[in-house]
Amino acid sequence: MKPENPIVAMLSLAAGLLFMWPVLYSVWMSLQTADAFYAGKLAFTLDNYERAITQFNFARYLLNSLIVSGLVTVLGITVATLAAFAFARFTFRGGDLLFGATVATLMIPSHISLIPNYLTLAKVGLLDTYAGLILPAISNGFAAFFLRQYIRGIPKALDEAAYMDGASPLTVLWRIIVPLSKPAIASMALYIFITEWNNYIWPLVAVGRQDLYTLQIGLARLYKINPGEGLVDWPLVMAASTITILPVLAGFLLVERHLVRGITMGAVK
């Protein structure tokens, strides 16, 4: 194997640092005091993280975001996998029309559904609850479409062999389709998690209780409630922002191998 070109390696490193610079700068800023930051001096401290977690309740916001994003990911990927399996493996009346309607939802701006979802949840009394935050986000047309295309690339002969041995459709899904689709499922799970983790509009509309705020709402309010003599406590805000990044970064590192494999295999197909 030929050694890596040093020029390409240096360019790749420079590009990586360029893209990472905003994040690195945010972390560096979060470790300073507000006085030192505005005075152009260096005074490192961890008090910003302690204040964000204790004084401004970010520990609770973090827990809420983990609960909501985690449940939306698990339920969303389950529904998307079941729908993708049905669309890819079964022929039924209206199937093409239903799949077309699923794909058509990708062209509808999400903000259009805010009022219908709000009125529906208000009628059943699910506003200001975890269920109200989770239920509208379970269905994901893009995940169903992506997984359907992936499953269609799996040979049907494997399904037929399992059916000859007496397997049910759910057994085929669990024993054959899901193991072979792990890269695609992991990719979509990360996509759903990040989408819900960064969601701001719906939690802002559906939740009025402070104990149910997610990180995004808490971060927006932190910016507003921390001005000092016309100045914003940016180190504190950056500390809270760093807290919001960590779970997403951890999730990416956990599924990175499956994510890259899923993208490359999808490209080859």
Distance between the termini: 27 Å
Subunit arrangement of the protein: single chain
Strand arrangement, major sheet: 1-2
Helix content: over 70%
Which radius of gyration do the C-alpha atoms yield? 23 Å
> Mind telling me the CATH superfamily name?
MetI-like
Largest sheet: 2 strands, antiparallel
How many β-strand runs?
2
Unreliable stretches covering 5 or more consecutive residues: none
Record keyword descriptors for this entry.
74% helix, 14 helices, 2 strands, 269 residues, single chain, mainly alpha, globular, two-stranded antiparallel sheet, MetI-like fold
Question: What does this protein look like?
Answer:
This protein is mainly alpha-helical and 269 residues long. The chain has a single domain, classed as MetI-like (MetI-like fold). Helix content is 74%, strand content 1%. It is built from 14 helices and two strands, in the order αααααααααααααββα. Strands 1-2 form a two-stranded antiparallel sheet. β1 (227-228) and β2 form a beta hairpin. The longest helix is centred in the last third of the chain and has 35 residues, at 234-268. The two termini are 27 Å apart. The mean pLDDT is 86.
